[in-house]
Amino acid sequence: MNGVIYDARRIKAYEGMKKLGSYAGKSEEFISRLWEALVLDEGMMKEWMYYLDHHTLLDEVVCEGYSLADIYVWQMKHYNLVQDIGKNTADCNKEALVLDTFAAMLSMKKEPELCKKRLEEGRGMDRFL
Questions:
Q1: Buried-exposed string 57-93: b where 16+ CB fall within 10 A, e elsewhere
Q2: Residue 63 pairs with which residues in a beta bridge?
Q3: Virtual CA dihedral for 48, 53, 54, 59, nearest 10 degrees?
C-alpha cells in the first residue's frame, strides 16, 4: 500500500459537515460544494476542523481584511434585518450561519472584490439575499 495516505481527520470533518448540514437544513448540493472548496484550502480546512472540535471559530483566515468572525457577525446582522426582529432569537440557526460563513469566506477568496463590496455596501435594495 505504498503511496496511500489515509487521513481520518478529514473523514471526521466530512461526517461532521454532513451532520451539521442536515441539522441546518442545507441541501446535499450545498454541502458537496462547500466540502469540495474546503478540501482545496488548507487554512479553511484547519478552521473547519477547529470549529468541529470547539464549536467556535479559530479565526486565523483573513481575506481582504475580513475574518470568519467578521463574516459571521455580518451574516447574523443580515439575518436579523431580513427577519425584521432586531435580535438573535431561538429561530436563528447558528449552525446554518456557520456553514454560510464558511461558504462566504471561500467565495470571498475566489472573488474578493465582489464579496467585499457586498459586505461594505450591501447587496442592493432589490435583493434580500
A1: bbeebebeebbbebbbebbbebbeeeeeeeeeeeeee
A2: 66
A3: -20
Q: Which residues pair with 66 in a beta bridge?
A: 63
- DSSP codes, 18-79: HHHHHHHT--HHHHHHHHHHHHT-HHHHHHHHHHHHHSS-----EETTEEHHHHHHHHHHHH
Average pLDDT for runs of 10 along the chain of length 129? 75 95 94 96 96 95 92 79 53 84 93 79 52
- 8 Å CB contact between 44 and 61: yes
pTM here is 0.79
Please provide the DSSP assignment of 91-113 as one string. Answer: TS-HHHHHHHHHHHHHHHHHSHH
CA-CA distance, 118 to 103, in Å (whole number)? 14
